[in-house]
Every structure is written in C-alpha cells, then in structure tokens.
Amino acid sequence: MQEILQYFFSGITAGAVYAVIALGFTLLFNATGLINFAQGEFVMIGALMLITLWKVLALPLIAAFALSVGLVAVIGILMERMAMRTVRKPHPIVMVIITIGISIFLRGVGMLSWGKDAHSVDPFTQHAPLEVYGATLLPQSLWILGIVLLIVAGLQFFFKKTLAGKAMEACAISKKAAWLLGIPSEKMVLAAFAMSAAMGGVAGVLIAPVTMSSYDMGTMLGLKGFCAAMLGGLGSVLGAVIGGLLLGVIEAFGVGLVASGLKDVLAFLILIFILCVRPSGLLGAKTIQRF
Amino acid sequence: MYKRLVFIAVIVLTGQVVSNPYDLQLLTFIGINTLLALGLNMVMGYAGQISLGHAAFFGLGAYTSSLLTIHLDWSPWLALPFTLVFVGIVAFLVALPMLRLSGYYLGMGTLAFGMIVFFIFLQWRSLTGGDSGLIGIPPLTLGPISFEFGAAPFYLVWGIVFLSFIVCERLIDSRIGRALRSLHDSERASAAVGINTSRLKVQVFVFGGVLAALAGFLYAHMVTFISPQTFDFLMSVKIVTMVVIGGMASVWGSLFGAALLTLLPEWLHVFAEYEMIIYGLILVVIMIFLPQGLTRGLLDIYEHFKSRRKTLPKSHEG
User: Fold this and answer.
1) Which residues of B touch A268 (CB under 8 A)?
2) Would the CB atoms of A104 and B101 count as touching at under 8 Å?
3) Greater confidence, B119 or B148?
4) φ, ψ for residue B145, nearest 5 deg
5) Is residue A289 very low, low, confident or very high in pLDDT (cuts 50, 70, 90)?
6) Do B283 and A97 touch (CB under 8 A)?
7) Which of B33, B224, B240, B309 could potentially form a cystine with B258 if both were Cys, beta carbons 3.0 to 4.6 Å apart?
8) Considering only CA atoms, which of B240, B186, B103 is closest in space to residue A275?
9) Tell me, what's the pLDDT at A287?
C-alpha cells in the first residue's frame, strides 16, 4: 500500500511536467495546426537557464523563473519570425524537417553553452518531506502540482474570458474567417508560438530540481509530452493535463512493478499504440485529420 | 548506360589511385552512407513518407548479423540473407500500422520507433552488450580475400552501391516508380486512378529498411565493433540531412549528400563541437530556400540565370 502510494506520488509529479509540455503542443496545434518537434528543446533550455540564473548567478528564484521562461518565449518568437513564417509552401514534410532542424540546432547550442555534463539544482524551498501514510511527498512535487493548476486555470480564463483568447480560438477555427472579422491572424500565430514556447520553458524550470538536466534531455521529454497530448486528445487543454498525469502514473507503476528498464520505452509504446489505434485520444471528440 | 560506365570507371580508378588505408576507409563509409540515403530517399523523396527512425534499420542489420556470427558462429555470408529477411519482416510489421499515418504523426511515430530500437540495444545488456556494444565481429572473407582493410571492402561496398543504383533507377522508371511519384503528389488522386497506395507505401518502406540493413551488415563486418551510439537519433537525422542536401527524389543526389556529410567532419577541424548546429542549420536553410535540395536547387538557379540572359535582350528589343 505504502509503495503503491509512493509510485503514485512520483507518477503525478512527473506527469504534471508532461502535462505542461503537452499544453505547449496543444496551444500551438490549436492556433496553427503545426506540431513543433523542437518543443522538447524549449524544456531543456528552460531547465538549464534556471540552473545558470538561480544557482550560478544567484538571482532571486522568482526573477530566475521569469527570466528563463521569458528567454524561451523569445526563442519561440524568433523561431516563428525567422524560420516558420518564411516558408512559402507549408507542406507537413517540409515543416517536420524544419522543426527537426531547429531542434538539432538548439541542442547544439545547448551543448556549446552548458557542456556535455548533467547539472542539478536544489528544490524551490527547503522544507522537510511530508509523510502521507508512510509514503514521502516532496515539497517540490507540491510546487509543481500547484503551478500546473495555476497554469490550467489561467489558460481556461484566457481562452474563455478575454478578447485575445477568444480571438486566438477564432483563428484556430478558421484563419480566414477570423481575418475577415479584423483579427490580426499573423499576430495570433506569433502569440501562440510565444505561449507554446513559454510552456516548454515552465516545464523545464519545474523539472530542473527533480532530475539531472543536460543538453540532450529534450528529445525524450518532447516525445513524452507529445505522447501525453495525443493520449488526452491533441487540441484539448483538459486532455493535455489528463494525458500528462496518466502517462506519468503509468510510467511510475511500470517502473516500480515491472522493470526499471521500461521507463523510457513505455511512453513510446503508448505513443505508437495511440497513433495507430485511436489518434483522437481519450477526450478528442472530433476525429483528428491525420496529416 | 553512359552514366553507369563513367561511374564504374570512377570507382575502379579511385580504387587504383587511392592507396592510403584511411582515405580508402573514408570512401567506403561514403558508400555505406549512400546506401542509407538511397533507401530513405525512396521512402521520403519518391513516396513522400517521412521517416525519422531510419537508423533503427541500420542498427538492426548490424546487430542481427553480429549476434548470429558471434553467438551462433554462423558464417557472415549465411547470416546475410537471414539478416535481410529478419529486418524486412520488422520493417513490414512496423510499416503496416504506421504508414496509415502521414505528415507530423508519421514523423513522431517513426521517431518513437527509432528510440525504442535504440533503447533495446542499450538496455538488453545480456544480448547486446549494452553501452559497450559488441566486439570481435568476424570480418567478411571470400577464399583468400579478407574484406576488412584496404581496397577489398572499398570495391565490395561500391559494387553493392552500383547494383543498388541500378535497381533503384529501374524501379523509378517502372510502373512502380510512376505510382510512387503520384503517391508523393496526392495520395487520394493516386488511389482514385487505381493504385493500391497502402500496399505501395509498405513495400517501399520495407525496401528502404532492407537496404539500410544491408548497409548495417557491411558496416558491422568491416569495423568489427558496434555500439548503440552509432544508431541513435542523431544518425537518423544525419540520414535525413543527406537526403535533403542531395535532393529528394534524386538517386544521384543521395550519393552527393552522403559524400558531403561524410567528408564535412574531415574537412572542418572544429566540426565535432559544432556538428549539431551545422546539421540543424543545413536542414532549416535548405528546406526554406532550396526545398528541391542542394543539387537540384543550384541547377535551378543556374538555369534561371541562363534563361534570363537569353531573354533579356529580346525584351529590350520589344
């Protein structure tokens, strides 16, 4: 019982981070129909940036948090401006290769800036771990879950209550119709890129204290975030969160109860299964076009 | 025919002129990479199906043949047909569900497949040796000739490249090739004119996989040592880059792309550090500015200028 609870705690901690990465995929997909293969690299840069700003430069945590996320958002904006917007015929194969190119480029930049070694950082706060029915719950897990809750509430508010959010949703439904109504669709795409990249940055900041961070962590996390987004139903904010938590818990139980070698393979098996059997995911009501 | 004779002449001449074993090995690696690029070009360039896990088939070919020859003491020549059939079956089983996807989803799916295979190489220590890989793979021999060092592996690999070129060119000029290109342009339209698109996609994917397995077989028995890192995600990206540089849907472009990406690290001393940055930039820049690939793109620019020079005086007269 105690072990089961322990697996559950570590599962939802990892799952909450996957959920944030999945939100990044979902936000961009909704506004542009694109899948960004460089999403995982945003996570890597967010994590390593936090370590540099907070641990090495000793900035206050909140400033380091905001600066890291802001920098990743700027990278997202640059990516849209300098690469994605210049493409004349946005055929999926071309877009896949371009975003793969950007991800490899960012990985190279990460390796040059932070070296090949893995880095770690302390949790956000130095509380003693909580005891819940014999299982330990780390304070960092509570931080992660709290921040994820805030983000989800914030996104719901943004899309349902603010003009900008509604405009973005209109863009997602029909770019042309939104443009006819006077919504600057190009700006909305740019904003979607910035928000999606910022999500990656937040995920990186959250994960930095619970894992070792290195330049090559992005591909795995990106794929797992994508797996979570597909699991919950690509394009749904709630789906991304449920998919992320579910993936985290499945992974934790797979590792704990079956074999530790499974950890990284499990997510990919789920991803391939979902892609082939039910591409609309758990919550996806409408059938997703598979291209 | 003329092109092929020149190709044979260049191979024979190069084999005679180059005597430095290091250079010969480098040229042999170009041949192996050409096989990889050629296989992926059939899938990506001609059929329009993206694959970000092509290194998996390269690795499966290398590992299958190595395990058969090390653990079961098979002769490499006996292991070869078994390896090709095995990897072909794996490619078939992967292609069957996966190629119902397209675009982004196919990219993600093949990427995940490549990762799974890489983790099997890495984690199944009792069989694959894990991180440290497999050593003592027997080299290929034929009577007194050993294909490990010098000119022998060079001729073997390039002979196979030559044969693969002929097979691919024949395929492309046949009904299958025309069907592939129509599939590339529009799957629905080609289905409408009676092409069995799903079967065709699976066939070309298996063909590309088997070609990569052949490359893996040659690589393993030439280097006599393999480890998982050779077949990781970056290798898949490298193969995609070769195809993109050489030009999608161009058989000879594959050779050019493979040669360039094999030689680039040799020419640029600092390359190791900047390897990823350079691959990334190449992919992005070529896809934005020359989506036809470097060879085709440069030819297009040249022809554009040539035709402009011809038409300019006319417009002045008129």
Assistant:
1) 112-113, 115-116, 119
2) no
3) B119
4) -90, 130
5) very low
6) yes
7) B33
8) B103
9) 47
3-state secondary structure of B226: strand
Domain ranges across chain A = 2-120+137-277
Fold (CATH) for A2-120+137-277: ABC transporter involved in vitamin B12 uptake, BtuC (1.10.3470)
Contacts of B89 (CB under 8 A, 6+ apart): none
Choose among A92, A109, A276: nearest Cβ to B100: A276
Return the pLDDT at B150. Answer: 76
Cα–Cα distance, B141 to B152 (Å, whole number): 10
Tokens 């020079």 belong to which residue? B309
Residues in B closer than 8 angstroms to A290, CB to CB, are 100-103, 105
CB contacts of B45 in chain A (<8 Å) are: none
Output the pLDDT for position B311. 60
Residue A273 corresponds to which tokens in the numbers above?
């299964």
Q: How many residues does chain B have?
A: 318
User: Which residues of chain A neighbour B44 with C-beta distances below 8 Å?
Assistant: 93
- For residues B21 and A112, give the distance between their C-alpha atoms in angstroms, rounded to a whole number: 33
Residue in this structure with the two tokens 């071309």, named with its chain if needed: A94
Query: pLDDT value at position B276?
Result: 83
CA distances from A126 to A139, A140, A146 (A): 8, 9, 17
Query: Are B88 and B212 a contacting pair, CB within 8 Å?
Result: no
Look up residue A95 and give its amino acid.
M
Tell me the mean pLDDT in the region B244-249. Answer: 83
Residue of A88, A94, A89, A86 lying closest to A35 (CA atoms): A94
CB contacts of B240 in chain A (<8 Å) are 97, 100
Q: Are the C-beta atoms of A119 and A204 separated by less than 8 Å?
A: no
Position A103 scores a pLDDT of 92
* Position B131, amino acid: D
Helices (H) and strands (E) in chain A, counts: 11, 2
Q: How confident is the model at residue A219 (pLDDT cuts 50, 70, 90)?
A: confident
pTM over 0.95: no
Chain B residues within 8 Å of chain A (Cβ atoms): 44, 48, 50, 52, 97-98, 100-105, 107-109, 111-113, 115-116, 119-120, 123, 233-234, 237, 240, 244, 273-284, 287-288, 291
Tell me which range, B72-86, B137-151, B288-302, is most confidently predicted by mean pLDDT.
B72-86
Chain B residue with Cα closest to A36: B104
pLDDT greater than 90 at residue A231: no
- CB pair distance less than 8 Å for B113 and A291: no
